């Protein structure tokens, strides 16, 4: 059975919509970050339709190891993972994008229902429509939702055996304390038979991390710079994308990769209800990607109410796929 794709309205409008459709909360959040002493934006604003496509391209780059390393873990250990999870789950794919990662697991996991969740509704809608044609026997639905701050699942999402799928090390976008809060929200939305299948990027050589987030072709730079174009559309800003450059590097003290946009020259940026003058060399902090040890991340899961059932890693121990079940009260 296939369910029609139904949009759930969120606080995050698609970039294709007019500026007027941006909610006051969206405008206030972006403006607050831009006016902070050290300017910042949430990484969710990297993912409009174009940003999602650019991220697809990043995943194909030789420098960007997480995608292929995680895929290799699933290829090598897929049967073990499927045995641990069991068939018939309600597979909730967080940050589904083109749905390809979840779709590759359908023959192993045999989910009863697939729920694709992504902040970029237009991109998700196209992806899920194609997927429904390939797997007409799986009940599917999609949600255009910013799940980084809340997770309101509609009644159409089955309660039984909810398996949250969060691949690709996206959990690294949250600071550790934020990650625990996020994982607790997932725990609150899972029943006693629920669980989490998650990808976690592990600490490794600085040079490998630096190259992964600042590739030679400049695709990651384009992805980061596209955020300015997106913000222009959301809050009526007048960022000149050509006046900024990308910086991505590993901060060993904080155990995270940081992405920034740096002003090439002094400039005044205006938006609805506000403005800021950026000095040459001043930066906007756009994303963090925290890296963990295996034991460190297991500790986060336990604090959030999950127990670790099993961990699979590649031979170099660059990446981990973890299946954790809900700790029953």
Can you put this structure into words, describing what you see?
The chain is 35% helix and 24% strand. It has 329 residues and is α/β, with parallel strands linked by helices. It has a 7-stranded mixed beta sheet, sandwiched between helices. Strands 6-7-10 form a 3-stranded antiparallel beta sheet. Strands 8-9 form a two-stranded antiparallel ribbon. Strand 8 and strand 9 (274-278) form a beta hairpin. The protein is globular and about 55 Å long.
Which key features would you list for this structure?
12 strands; disordered N terminus; single chain; 329 residues
What is the strand and helix layout of this fold?
Elements: H1 24-35, H2 49-59, H3 65-85, E1 90-94, H4 100-109, E2 113-118, H5 121-134, E3 139-144, E4 162-166, H6 176-188, E5 195-201, H7 206-212, H8 219-235, E6 244-251, E7 256-263, E8 267-271, E9 274-278, E10 283-290, H9 294-304, E11 306-313, E12 319-326
Helix pairs in contact: 2-8, 3-4, 6-9
Mean of all residue-level pLDDT scores = 91
Radius of gyration: 20 Å
Instruction: Sketch the topology as an H/E string, one letter per element.
Output: HHHEHEHEEHEHHEEEEEHEE
| Termini Cα gap | 34 Å
User: Any low-confidence stretches, pLDDT <50, length ≥5?
Assistant: 1-20
How many strands appear in the DSSP assignment?
Answer: 12
Instruction: Describe the sheet with the most strands.
Output: 7 strands, mixed
Structural shape? globular
Helix coverage percent of residues? Answer: 25-40%
The total count of helices amounts to 9
What structural class do helix, strand and pairing data support? Answer: alpha/beta
Oligomeric form = single chain
Side by side, the strands of the main sheet go 3-2-1-4-5-12-11
Beta-strand fraction estimate: 15-25%
């Amino acid at each position: 059975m296939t369910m029609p794709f139904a949009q759930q309205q969120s606080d995050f409008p698609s970039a294709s919509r007019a500026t007027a459709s941006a909610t006051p909360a969206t405008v206030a959040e972006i403006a607050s970050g831009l006016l902070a002493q050290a300017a910042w934006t949430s990484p969710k604003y990297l993912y409009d339709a174009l940003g999602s496509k650019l991220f697809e391209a990043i995943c194909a780059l030789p420098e960007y190891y997480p995608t292929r390393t995680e895929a290799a873990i699933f290829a090598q250990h897929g049967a073990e993972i499927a045995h641990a999870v069991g068939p018939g789950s309600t597979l909730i794919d967080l940050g589904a994008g083109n749905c390809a990662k979840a779709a590759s697991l359908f023959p192993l996991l045999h989910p009863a229902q697939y729920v694709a969740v992504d902040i970029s509704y237009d991109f998700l809608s196209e992806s899920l429509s194609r997927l429904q044609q390939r797997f007409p026997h799986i009940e599917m639905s999609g949600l255009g939702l910013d799940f980084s701050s809340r997770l309101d699942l509609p009644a159409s999402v089955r309660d039984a055996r909810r398996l949250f799928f969060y691949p690709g090390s996206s959990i690294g976008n949250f600071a550790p304390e934020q990650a625990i809060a996020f994982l607790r929200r997932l725990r609150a939305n899972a029943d006693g038979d629920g669980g989490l299948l998650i990808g976690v990027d592990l600490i490794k050589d600085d040079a490998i991390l630096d190259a992964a987030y600042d590739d030679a072709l400049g695709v990651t730079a384009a992805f980061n710079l596209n955020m300015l174009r997106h913000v222009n559309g959301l809050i009526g800003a007048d960022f000149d994308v050509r006046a900024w450059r990308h910086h991505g590097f590993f901060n060993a003290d904080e155990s995270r990769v940081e992405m920034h946009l740096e002003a090439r020259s002094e400039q005044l940026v205006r938006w609805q209800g506000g403005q800021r003058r950026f000095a040459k060399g001043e930066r906007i902090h756009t994303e963090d990607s925290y890296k963990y040890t295996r034991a460190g991340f297991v500790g986060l899961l336990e604090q959030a109410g999950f127990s670790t059932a099993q961990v699979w890693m590649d031979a170099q121990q660059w990446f981990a796929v973890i299946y954790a079940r809900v700790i029953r009260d």
